[in-house]
Amino acid sequence: MPVSVSTGMAATQHQKTILLLSLNKLSFFDEQYAKLTDLLASNAAIKSASSPSAALDFLSSNTPHAIIVTDEAIVEPENSSVLDKLISYACAGGIVVVGCHFSSFISPDEFESFFARWALPWKLGNYSRETVSVNHQVRGVDKVGLPAAYSQKAVFINNISPDAALYQVLPDPEDESFPSRYHGQTPVAYTKIGDGWLGYVGDVNAEAGSDLVIWKMCRL
Question: Which CATH number characterizes residue 163's domain?
Fold first, then answer.
């Protein structure tokens, strides 16, 4: 299936393009993430690729402003060439954001091996609902307009450096195990990859705050 325009107007010569990479798109994706795609479409032309060949064909002749990986299929061996292309794209200055259904359907081993391909030591962390607050020390994301804090149920990244943890769990003074449970973990990450950036949003419920985070990660 070729790349298709999924929402918004067709790209003009000077308009930014966002590619949604959905290699295992679920039937309810469009409904669940309608607010996100509408938000992105307010500032960019949104295109989608649902097969490896469509993604590779598009990226061979186009350089989108950002790529959003919406599901876990990118880790499958048959999609390795697409992942290689994503890494090259980011290293050359592109923005890749991993989110939506990615964290819901990936195994711990797949999670670790995926980020190892990016030369990152990130591992699968906790899965819980927590109130998180923005970390102003993280570079690369404009914090203006982001929620200072919000609640999300998410798959956390473990073994992450503080300067890549865009949101951090607010301490609970009544929870004695809190420091050990969330040390080195985050549900939202953003880090430099070569000349570009890699973002991760582990939210599983399409919270409005996470929509804004993805929008900001894409620099729209």
Answer: 3.40.50.880
* Helices 34-41 and 208-217, packing angle to 10 deg: 40
Ordered mean pLDDT values, 10 residues apiece, the chain (220 residues): 54 79 97 97 96 97 98 98 98 98 96 98 95 95 96 96 93 62 89 98 98 97
* Measured distance CA(146)–CA(10) in Å, rounded: 28
Three-state DSSP state, 213: helix
Per the CB < 8 A criterion, the answer to whether 156 and 186 are in contact is: yes
Q: Would you state the pLDDT for residue 17?
A: 98
Angle at 47 between CA 142 and CA 98, to 5 degrees: 50
User: 30 to each of 22, 48, 62, 124, 182, how far by Cα in Å?
Assistant: 11, 11, 24, 26, 32
Which residue reads 């993430």 in tokens?
33
Res 171: pLDDT: 72
Number of domains in the chain: 1
Which DSSP string do the residues of 45-102 spell out, in sequence order? EEEEE-SHHHHHHHHHH---SEEEE-SGGGGSGGGHHHHHHHHHHHHTT-EEEE-TTT
Nearest to 191 by CA among 138, 136, 143, 125: 138
Q: Is the pTM of this model over 0.85?
A: yes
Distances (CA, A) of 48 to 54, 55, 197, 201: 9, 8, 20, 19
Which residue range(s) make up the domain with 35?
A: 4-217
Task: Check residue 174 and give its pLDDT.
Answer: 66
Output phi, psi for 199, to 5 deg.
-115, 155
